[in-house]
Amino acid sequence: MDRERLNIDKILQEKFKDFKGEIPLSDWGLIEQKLQKRKRRLILWWASVLLFVGAAVSFIAYEKYSGITENSVINKPTSISGETSTTKPSVDGLIEHSDGSVEKKDNSRTQISDNHSTKNVVKYPERSHTKKIPAVDHNLPEVTSSKQLEMFPISLKGKSVKNMSPEILNEVYLSDLLALNKPQPKSEIKSRKLALELGLNIAPAIGIENLDINNSKLLNKYYFSTIDGASSAGNGFNNGLNVQITYTDKFYFRSGIYAQNYSVSRNYDYYIDSVPRVNTYNEIDDYIPIDREFYLYKGKTSIKYISIPLLLGNRTYFNSKWGLESKLGLNVSRLLSSSGMFANPTDIRLEDLNRNRNIKKWNLGASVSTGIFYKTKNNIIFTAEPNFNMMFGSAYDSKYPLSSKNYNYGININVNYILKGGKL
Amino acid sequence: MNNKELYEIIEGCKQNDRQAQKLLFEMFSERMMGVCLRYSNSYESARDMAQEGFIKVFTKMKSFKGNSALETWMTRIFINTCLTNLNKKENKVYHLDINDPVVAVKTEAAIVEDEEVEETLRSLPVEKILHYISLLPDIYRQIINMYSIDGLSHQQIAEELDIQVGSSKSRLSRARVLLIELIKENEDLIG
Known about the structure:
Chain A is of the alpha+beta class. In chain A, 24% of the residues lie in helices and 42% in strands. Chain A starts with 6 loop residues before the first helix and ends with a strand.
C-alpha cells in the first residue's frame, strides 16, 4: 500500500473484498465447447506440421536410399539375383569380386534380377540367335540368352568404347550401340519433364506505408491532425523456404512458408490536454480538459506475418547456365505479431500496436519479380531479381478509422536445389 | 475444501481433465464473475470475459507453480482478460449519455476530502457502487478497479496499460472525481 491511497480507495477495496457475481452454471457447457474446439485446432495444426515434416523426410530418405533413379541404376553395379553384394558383372562376362578375384560367370546363375532392374533397363528386340564370345587370353563366358545381351548397354554406358578389346566390340552388335542413343520410351520422357526443387528465399526490401484516414469513422478529426504528420520510413522482408514443381525446365509453380514483415519507423512528439466526450450518437459533444500528457516516441512499428506464397514462374535459358526468371503470384498471410507504439487515432494516446485488436488476422497480397538466374552443374539455381510485394487490403479491419496499406520494393535472392527430375 | 483436494483439482486441470476443470469452474466462477463485472459495463460482456478467462486459466494451468495463492493467480489472469477485451473496443472514448448532466470538473482535493461522500459510499450497497463504476468510461473504470480495488501500484498499472506512471496517476485522479460526482448527483448530495 502506498501513501497515495485515500479513504475512498480503502472504502472501495473493503466493499468489494468478497464481491461475487452470478454466472449461470450452463456457461460451463460453452467453456467446454470452446476448449474442445481449441483442442481440435491444436491437433490439426500439429498434424499438418507433422505431415509436412514427414513428407519432406520421406522424400529425402527415398531419394537417398532407394537408388532406383535412372542414372544411378545405369552407373551403379547391378547385383546378380537381387542379392546385395560387392560382386559385380563386368562387360566381358566375368564376375569381379571385391577382393579382386575374378570368376567365370555360371550361365545357370545369370539371372538379371527382377523388377527393379527391368523397369529401368531399356528393352531391345529379342534376338533369334546368339553368338559365342570368342575366347581371348582367359576363359570367356558364352552369351546364351537375350538377358545377357541386356547387360551390354548397361555396362557400356559410361565406359569408353575405345578401351574395350576388339574381341568384345566385334561381338557387340552395332544396333546395340545405336540403341544407346535411341530416344527413350515415351512414358519415361514424360516423367522427366517434371522436376522437384527445394529452396531458400531471402528478400530484404524497402517498405512504404500508405496511411489513409477514413474520415467517416474518425471521431477525433481535429486532434488527429496533431499526429498525422509524424515522420515515418519503412522496410520489410519476405524470407522463407519453398517447394517448387518445374515443368520442362521452363514453367514452375512455387509454394512454401515465408516470414513476412512490414516495418515503419515512427517519430511522435506531442501532448494532449483534453479528451473528447462522445454522445450516444457517437458524435463528439465537447472536450474534457485533463492534466497535460506528453507523448514522445521514436521507434519502429512492425507487423509480422507467416505467409504461404502461391507463385507461377517462367525460366528462359540464354545458354545452359544463365537465364531470365520471372514470377508472379499471391501471398496468403496470417498475422503472427505486431510491435511498437502507435498513436490511437481517436484518443491520440500511444498504444502498444500488439494490443490493437483491429489488425486483421488474415490478409491477401501479391508479389511480382523478374531477374537473372544461374544454374550450376550441381543442380543448384541461384536467382537475383528485383521484387515488389504488396497487400491488397489494409492491415486494419474496416472498423478502424485508419487504413494502412503496405508495399515493399526489394531484391529477391533465391537458392533452389533440383531434388529430382528435370533435364539433368 | 482442503488443500489436498485443491491440489488434486489443480493437477487434474494440468492434465486437461474435464471433471477437474468443471470443479474448478464451480469453485471460482462466482468470485471471478465478480472481477469481470467490475471491469465491464454490462452483464453480458462480463459473462463473455468470464468464459474467456476460464479458458485462459485452463490453458495456462501448467505454468501455475503455486508461488501465489490460486485465487490471486486466477484473478490476475481475469484482470488481464478484461483489459484485453476492453482494448478490443472500436473507440476508446467517453460514452456518457447525452442527457446526463455535464460532469463538473473540480480539483480532486475538494472532493476526496469530503467526509459526507465517504459516509455515503460506506452506506451504499456494493451493487449500487458497482452500477456507478460501470457508468464510468472504460479507461477510468479500469484504473479505479486496478488501483483502488485490486491494489495494483501505479508502476504495475503503467506497465499493464502501456502508459506512463504520470498518466496513471492523472487518470486515477480523474476517475475518483467522476465517480464521486456521479454518486453525488444520484444520491442527492450537495456538490
